[in-house]
Model the fold of this input.
Amino acid sequence: MIILGHGIDLVDVAKVTQLVERRSESQLLRIFTSDELAYCNKNVRRKAEHLAARFAAKEAVAKALGTGFTKGVAWFEIEVAHDETGRPTVRLAGRTAEVAKSMGVVHLHLSLSHINEVACASVIAEGVPATMSVRSSCNQGDTKAIAKLPMKKKARSQSRPSDTASTLKPKAK
Done:
């Protein structure tokens, strides 16, 4: 698999705070999923930071797909969730999932960060381009170039001196 796209976005937390204050819950559901809002409402003190990070993630996904919010890609079809270890993940739904699949996207890697003033997200889209198969993604020339790369030698296992003494031979002069 190869990197098909990368998106990054920064969001001003104060602007998200204003957005949340001016909009009703039903209006926020045009941008965020109900699960995202529930997660962010758990920590009222840092709610705006968490929402800003999710907003940035949605923008970063749209950039990684290379579509922006066109071709059917929608805010509410991009959801930031967490895996069993707490790591943020991206879930796609509806037309947005179809767009990603048609591009050959298999996985979206997500990284989030936020402080009082700013939130950022980085998304890497990984997969196989729809126009090439896994086999054709590495042509013969690439294979030869890879074969010429210097490889690290395996580290020898450490043995006790008594074990190595019998295997050492003096250099011939």
Remarks:
- The first strand starts at residue 2 and ends at 12.
- Strands lie at 2-12, 78-82, 88-92, 105-114, 118-127.
- Residues 134-171 have pLDDT under 50 and may be disordered.
- The domain at 2-127 is CATH 3.90.470.20 (Ribosomal Protein L22; Chain A).
